[in-house]
Queue: 2 jobs
Job 1
Amino acid sequence: MSPTLHANLLSVFGWVIRGSFMAGILVLLVLIVQFLLKNKLESRWRYLIWLPVAIRLLLPWAPESSLSLYNILSLEAIAPGIHQKTQDPSVLKDAGGAGEAAVHSDLTNSESNGTLEVLASSYESGTVQKSALWWNKIKQLGFSNGLMLVWLAGVLFLAAKTVYDQIRLKQALRAGRSIDTPFLSAVFQETKQLFGLKRKVRFVASERIPGPAVVGFHEPAVVISPSLLVTLQKDQLQYILAHEFAHIKRRDVAVNWVIHMILILHWFNPLIWIAVHKARQDQEIACDACALDRMRPQQKNAYGQTIIHVLEHLSVSHYQPGLAGLSATHKEMKRRLIMIKHFNKKSYRVSILGLGMILALGSVTLVNAKESGAESASQKPSAQSQQNTKAAVDKEDDIVYPEGNIDRELYKKELEKARKKAETAAKALTPEEKKYIEDEENRVKELSKKTGDMYVLYHKYKDLNSGVDLSYRGGLEEFSTYEDYLKRASALEGSILKQPANLPEGYKFSKARIEGPTEGKFVDEVRAEGKKSGKPIYAKKIDWKEAATIRIEYTNGKNTLAISKYMLDSEGSKKQGFFEDDFPAHIYPKYVFWHEGGFEYSISTTWDMSKDKKIEILKTAVKK
């Protein structure tokens, strides 16, 4: 191995060691944050919170800051020997310089002798001297050399295995059969349109690929096994395809490749393996949330049942970089189903808490420790250079954090398009319109906060509102006492939920929630009134007299009993009477549903209770 190649490899190894150490600390922080905020952090943001870890591992350079966590927890302080031996190998450069000086000196002396024989002898002597000096330095770096060789062997092995796995995956995909039957193709295209995908996506049946899964990111293919396909009804197939199209929409295969490359470089760090495993789990749940965001609330239960049905047919895990599919272990299934049960479309769109956690973690971990000790002016970048660099990093963070898309180039293009649309729309506004929009949004926000009323806003320039022409303020009320809930619920029209007289012994009121409607005839009315007004933004108070959703929970400190009321759509209203879900009771709280009068009433428990007993409690809880 030449001195130059060895020096470059040692430099890369040093960068990997330092980055892995810093990312390991960040992994622990992320796990702690997820544990502390497990009931408050929405599914998408539990996944995006891993983004600073990936950025930390990919950063070739980072600015220094006194806020950096590594001022306290540094590799030099914890393992000074490793830190010193994995620094840039300037000693090798010194060795090379000494060797070259020796050769030059011997050549000069040889020329003074004036004979070719002495010249050859001196040159050979100088070369030997140079090699001896270099190998002496290598021996001094024996510890780091040994570690580097072990690391390099692991990298080469995993890289070779990845290539082998990809070859097999490509062969299996080519051996698959394209699904082109009219019925299945129609369901496929309908679901694809639901996600607004314009890319060409193949639909393939294959038993050799553990599907359902998405294979490839440049020309993706949705793969499903024929043995599973024959067991699916139309709705179940749509839910599975929705999950896979969510993977394509979110570019998860490309993300998985980035994650896999990181894992190959940092294979020796168990915390990185844990992070990758957890991130893949969170990716699946975030993908479920993406799919649910494009469904009606009433479809949540059927989607969850389909997840269970599919996972029962999966016998192996398919965590490969070229795949993104519907997968989970038995333990992970419970967490996914709980998310599906409590999914709320509003929570998927924005999370101040999630964004705040990412920014907070990034601000203390994506910057290096402040170097102590004086540096010469020639070694330090100028103040203007530091300012420009910081601005570039901040700008990069701003680009990555809002959507969490690791495929930065793609997201930059998408963000640039959105910015141009917003800028174009903003330029079209008059100063009066700009002020009117700002004043009206602040007015409605304060009114909603002060009175608790619900408002719907029509945006004439929807490009200024993320491409959506309607938004809502208020309409969600939460209660910590049964008296406060009952006082509010009693003022509403229609049926409400009351505390059942036959509640199990030891169970007490825990919390309740009442939500206003976000669908109905009033939506079209507000849209029409907003257009007619000609105003850049039009707000209207929604005097909802009947709750669209009510949920009450009771607990004995260990188990929970929940009773809910939901507004049904025309499709859901077709099924009437009492019926039970088919979720495994040991995995998911067992539900009994009661459809009547355009509403769905339900009861669920976290322990085993008979259907008849649940129906008795549910009947006494519904007050008409």
Note: The radius of gyration is 31 Å.
Job 2
Amino acid sequence: MPEIPLGGQSVLLHLRELEYSMKLLDREKKKINADVEHLIKLFIMPDSPDKFIEFGADLLDLIHNFFQEKGGIHSAISLNDLSKLFSDINIPQESHLLKDVLHEIKTKLIAHSVKVGNPYYIGHMTSAIPYYMILLEMIIAALNQNQVKIESAKASTFLEREFVAWMHRLVFNKNPKFYRANIQNRNIALGTVTLDGTFANLTALLVARNRAFPPDGDFPGIRDAGVYEAYKHYGYSKAVIIISQRGHYSIDKVSRIMGLGNNSVIKIPVDSGNKMDTRLLESKCEEIRIHNEKGADRVKIIAIVGIGGTTETGNVDNFREIHRIAAKYDTFFHIDAAWGGGILIIEKYRHILDGIELADSVSIDAHKLMYCPVSMGVAIFRDRKELNNIKHTSNYIIRPDSVDLGRFNIEGTRSFAVLKPWATFQVLGSGGFKLLFDHAFELTNRLSLLVELHPDFESMSTPELFIFTYRFVPKRIQEKIQELMYNTSSEAETLSQISLLGKINLFLNELNIELHKLIREEDESFVSRTMYDSPKYFRQDVVVLRTITVNPLTTSDILKEIIEQQGILGNKLYESEFAERFEEI
């Protein structure tokens, strides 16, 4: 039977894969008698080391085969059919052999996982990781340390404090005497390891909120009294967080969690470089100050948040100017550098985050530019006593005079995830990170150039930190846009042209959405998609293709292939479904 091409895979392959996967639903795993002796063997090292090595080898073989398999980035099975593989409503009652369960994991889970380490996968921040991370994950699981308490995390507690000191020094770069005195000082915390960037931002902004409404006379502070009593005591009706329009959505989540609500996140428009417009920031702060002088419905600015690598466009705010404004209006200055903070490892690139050391707090993710698997974040603070604003204790686990890390962390049980970046710093060294970042910058610049030179693509952002956005715009439409943008003679004509430009952008949005779907169906490469208001086009919403070029396995030739393929797909799509419609606009 001949194979009929279907988006990088074949119909026959798809049918065989689907048939095989569905058969797994009826596969009978061998049942065993689960006596106490059998169960005990599952909880200790097997009697024979050979048995442990056997299963370990099987597991590594499963992973190796996953990376070696040919075909697309995503499996061909549909989401609907995939859901059927995991629709057993009955909790398993019988015990089964581990090898049978591993086989089910291989065929039902691994076979349909996304190959995020594929060099053609350039659409998200999740990328290839060093192979030794698998070994570190095994150590973390085997030791099963709980970082909340020294009694469940002895050596790992001190390792974590060492890593936090490294991160603090990367950002704030105080003198060596400061770090020697504080690296293992149980009475303070230079920062705290968190689940991810969201928790790092939550930690920092909780500190900011508690600092904004501290104890005062008989008032115990917002931590004890709550939001309502804090507002009443200090004479405010609302508290706000100010951030760029390109800020991460975690700030909205944080505001909700803290009881402030979505409406308390003020989003400042960006300038032409996708950075917070600091003139508008200062104007908003001044507007709030003047409003507060009237005495009614006063507003408290809890924090101003700068971005060290926006997740949509990879751009960096002007930290020095934001710090000046934050100081002028006496408010906390936090920097969300979850994406870009890792670049500080290399002195050559520190200028990209110029002024980051002026922040009161900074959040950074290890699972981004530190090439660790998901997930781990860290929140670090310029003032070594800042985390006392959220410090808590408990008689049974985190007593006041202990060395327990849980005193300074809003999470409870927390894994030994910090082992991964700690080990990576030692395996790679700064020299290794430099090679990785040099390669990533080379890829980003190469991709930007490929788009600029292609007649049917348009660059939509200027990359700073390995993120680049662009869109498919056929040459004919680009010519029309140029005509509208630069040929105006009167205000009425300008308004008319802006209106027409809006219609064209809506048309292009639809075209790029359909192109993105087609790229997914072809499955030979992957880029993501987003939509934001474009300063270039009078703040009109534009749909763009989004790339992240940090995978060390990706090459310039691969990027060339990707752009060429997208150009071919885009033109076929345009000519077959969109060309006639454009002439009607």
Note: The CA atoms of residues 242 and 266 lie 5 Å apart.
